[in-house]
Model the fold of this input.
Amino acid sequence: MARPSKRTIWLVVAGLAVIAVLAALVVTVSMAQRWIQTVTAQPPGIGVRVLAPADSKAQLALTNDEMDAAATAATEYLAVQPTSYWLTPEQDPIGTAGNTVTGLLAQARDQDVALSLVIYGLPERDCGNHSAGGLSTQDYQRWVAEISAALETAPDLQKIVILEPDSLALAPECGNIDERVPQLREAVDSLDGPHTWIYLDGGHSGWLPTEQMATLIADVGVNDTVRGFATNVSNYRSTYDEFEYAHALSEELDGLHAVIDTSRNGAATAGSDWCNPPGQTVGDESGTFGDEVVDTNLWIKPPGESDGPCHGGPAAGVWWPDAAVELTRNNR
Done:
C-alpha cells in the first residue's frame, strides 16, 4: 500500500485543526446564547432591586426613643435594606389593604425599583401556631380582590408576589389540603396581571420530600399565571442547600422557577429550629444570586421581626431590637 505524502498528511492535520476550531466556536456561541437567554429571559433576575418600604416595622421602630445605641444602629441598617412587605389582614384589613398597596407602588415607582409583597391572610393561617389568624373564606376573596385591583393600577411596574408562605408545605400536617388548594387557585386567578410574578409556597430543603412538595404545587395549577415557588421563607437554611432543592423541585414541575429567601441565612446553623434560633445572621442581600431556575434571592422575611414567643422573643411579627442587633452583628 502506498504511503501518504507529507503534503497529504499536512493537509489532513490542517483540516482536522480547522474542524476543531469551528467546533469550538460553535460550542462557544451556543454557550453564549444560553447564557444570554438565561440572563435576559428571567426578570426580575440577578441584580434586582426591590423596595425598602418606608412604613416597614424597622422604619417605624426608629421612632422608639427607648432603644439603645446598638439597637438603633441595627434598626437603621435594616430599615434601608430592600425587603418584602407583608400584607396581613390584621395590619392591612379589608378597606385599607388597597391603599397600602397603592402607596407602596408609588414608592417603588419613585425609586425605580420592583415591589415585593407577601400576601399572608388565608383562613386558619398557620394551623393555630404562632402566626395564627387569617380571614374567613369569603372575606379572604374580598381582601385578595382589593389587593389585586390596586396592583392593576401599575401595569408597567414589576411586582413580585409571594403567596401565602407555609400554606402548602404545612397543609399535610394541618389536614386541610382540600381547602388550601382551591383557596390558592382562586387567589392566583385574582392576582394575575401584567408584570406580576406569583410564587407559591415551596417549603424549604429540610421540610417535605421534593416529590410531595411538587404534587402540592401542581395541584394548585402550574400554568402561565404562576411564575414559580418561594423557598426558605422565614427560615434559616443555607443558600447552597436551597439552590439544590429549588432545582430538584423545578425538575419535578417541568421547569417552574423559584425565589429563595436569604434574609436570615447568613450563618445557616439553625438546623430544625425555626423559631428565633440564636446565633443567626442576615444573608446575602436581594438580587445577589440567580440562574436558569432561581430567578433571584430576596429578603422576604424582614430581619428583626420575631418568629414567635420562643428564645425570649415577643409575639410573631413584632419588632425585636435584640434580634436586630444579633442578626446584623457582622454588618455594622
Remarks:
- The chain has one domain: 50-327.
